[in-house]
Amino acid sequence: MSEDPIVAFTDGAAKGNPGPGGWGAIVVTPDGHVTELGGGAAHTTNNRMELCGAIAALEQSAAHDAPLAVYTDSSYVIKGITQWVWSWRRRGWKTAAGEDVLNRDLWEALSALVEARGRERIDWRWVKGHVGTPGNERADQIAVAFALQRDAALYTGPVGSYALAILDLPERAGPPERSASGTARAPKGKPHAYLSVVDGVLMRHATWAECERRVKGRAGARFKKAMSPADEAAILAGWGIGASRP
Fold it and tell me: Does the N terminus or the C terminus of the chain have fewer Cβ atoms within 10 A?
């Protein structure tokens, strides 16, 4: 068994929620092959599309004998597949309140794939959305394109020819905590800077929108959020770039 994991990014979107929706997934195998996947539905919800992206990633990975790391910004997917689904199954697909579980068909499909692969072989990793993580941003682009019925120009090929630094992976984090009212708590701290490298030239940006405009469509571009000067220095060191300011 390979020690290097398969890396997957997944996302989902629904315009109107419910409304036209799409999902996106990117799978990178240890041998350096990238596969982009996407699909959509005319009338759906964001949660259903998030689940479809995760299902597609596991299906695409099924033939590869390696651990799997799945990155998603959906706490619904992560908490559902790691905590809730097993209780739902024991209760005959009922919630603790005795109500029918929403999206049961997709939860059954996803949990079957997890069981077939082995729970211990899948690492579900939450990633904060829209902060410049290349895989998360691209999965979102694919999902939105399918929701709007636009061409997503899906890529299949070697990672060396891929337009994004897909293996610039985010630091490990858990889904945001929920308050007693069920709303997400605001994240602590303001980003120090957004960093981008295009054609070997480093720039710092005050906003993600500014950073995104620079890197969008640029082959080999790198970009990431830094929360502090020390975080920035660590990111630049990981990219093999000195800490001098652009």
Answer: N
Each of the 246 residues of the chain gets a pLDDT tens digit; together they read 346 899 999 999 999 999 999 999 999 999 999 999 999 999 999 999 999 999 999 999 999 989 999 999 999 999 999 999 999 999 999 998 999 999 999 999 999 999 999 999 999 999 988 888 999 999 999 999 999 999 999 999 999 999 998 998 887 666 655 433 334 444 445 788 888 888 888 989 988 888 888 887 777 788 888 887 777 777 777 777 765 444
Selecting among 36, 50, 137, 232, the annotated active-site residue is: 50
* Whether residue 192 lies in the annotated active site: no
11 is catalytic: yes
What's domain 1-164's superfamily in CATH?
Answer: Ribonuclease H-like superfamily/Ribonuclease H (3.30.420.10)
Q: Where are the beta strands (DSSP E) in the chain?
A: 6-14, 19-28, 33-44, 68-72, 122-126, 156-158, 193-198, 201-205, 222-226
Give dist(CA 64, CA 200) in Å, integer.
34
Residue spans of the domains in the chain: they are 1-164, 189-246
**Is residue 205 flagged as an active site residue?**
no
